[in-house]
Each structure stands twice: as structure tokens, then as C-alpha cells.
Design goal:
two-stranded antiparallel ribbon; six-stranded mixed β-sheet; alpha+beta; 8 strands; single chain; binds zinc ion
Length: 178
């Protein structure tokens, strides 16, 4: 959905959109959209500014990624609010220094006649996914020695055998031959 400046000059844009998995591109981000994305909110041109746009709203989606520890599936149900400010690119060219004094608010820039809602949502989703992607808080991960998934069965390997990469590789190989 294109949020057009021309339209915002007339009225505040209200959006209430749903996007099925695949409509937004997450291919390069190592995450998958696992359920419908719903986004509601408004986009408005702020009075007495040189084309500053405010986009506020809320999004809900279920995202998935590979667990950092066990390589299993980690799920992230997101329900997040956003309140974003965008200035036209031309603004940077004119102002030698762009002072960002919006406090907590996030500031971005747009080019041309407006903004793509999909780009905004994609960015907000990626920001909302935790840095540490684990399937659960206490995920025990993969044993570095034998390669077993320690969530499924404890192994008898000694802990703190860091650096034993050969052992881990050997373990994975053994698993594959089963
Ligand atoms: Zn895990
Ligand atoms: Zn082990």
C-alpha cells in the first residue's frame, strides 16, 4: 500500500491491512512470516513542517527463525506499536546538519511522492524480533562434543569441552549416517 503525500495533503490516511506470508520479502533476513500480518494505523502530513510525515499504528504477526542454540524452530508472536517520523530526502540536502531531537521517536527519510507501508512494516518487524533468537529461554542447544540436541536427550559428554570442533563435526557425521 502506497502512502501518498498528495493524498495526505488532503486528509490523514487510515490503513487497516492484512498481508499473507510471502507478500513481504524476508528472504535475506533469516526469518519467516508464519501467519497473517495485520497492520492498522494512520499516516499524516504534519502541519508547519517541510513535508514531515508521521506514521503511527500497531502490527501483529507470528514470525519464525532458526533457534541460535539448537537450530530448531523459534517462534516470535509480535504485537507491537510504532510511532515514526519521516522527512523528505531533500531536507538533508538543504540542511547542513540534521538535528534529531525527537526524543524517543524514530526518524527516517523518504524519497519521491510517499512511502510504501510494506517497507515500514518490514523494518518494524525486524526491529521487534529479539537479537537472541532462541526457541525457549532454557533451550539447552546442541552439544558441542557429540552434536546431539540436548533438549531431546541429555548426553554423557563432559561440559566445558570448548574448542572440540572436530568432536562436534564427528558427532554430526555420525548422526547423518543413521
Ligand atoms: Zn533451541
Ligand atoms: Zn554430547
Amino acid at each position: 500500500m502506497f502512502l501518498s503525500i498528495k493524498e495526505m495533503e488532503l486528509r490523514k490516511i487510515r490503513f487497516d491491512e492484512a498481508f499473507a506470508p510471502g507478500e513481504l520479502n524476508f528472504e535475506e533476513d533469516d526469518v519467516n512470516q508464519a501467519g497473517p500480518l495485520r497492520a492498522q494505523g494512520t499516516a499524516e502530513l504534519l502541519a508547519n513542517t517541510e513535508g514531515e510525515v508521521r506514521v503511527q499504528g500497531r502490527l501483529e504477526v507470528l514470525m519464525e527463525a532458526e533457534c541460535d542454540r539448537c537450530l530448531g524452530r523459534a517462534r516470535f508472536p509480535l504485537d507491537t506499536r510504532f510511532d515514526l517520523f519521516y522527512r523528505p530526502m531533500a531536507y538533508i540536502a538543504r540542511e547542513e546538519e540534521v538535528e534529531i531531537d525527537e526524543g524517543e521517536a524514530q526518524l527516517g527519510f523518504y524519497q519521491g511522492g510517499g512511502l510504501e507501508l510494506e517497507d515500514i512494516l518490514r523494518e518494524q518487524i525486524l526491529l521487534a524480533i529479539p537479537m537472541q533468537r532462541v526457541c525457549r529461554e532454557d533451550c539447552k542447544g546442541i552439544c558441542p562434543t557429540c552434536g546431539a540436541n540436548r533438549n531431546e536427550a541429555p548426553c554423557d559428554c563432559k561440559e566445558d569441552h570448548a574448542g572440540d570442533r572436530w568432536g562436534a563435526l564427528q558427532g554430526l557425521k555420525d548422526l547423518k549416517t543413521f
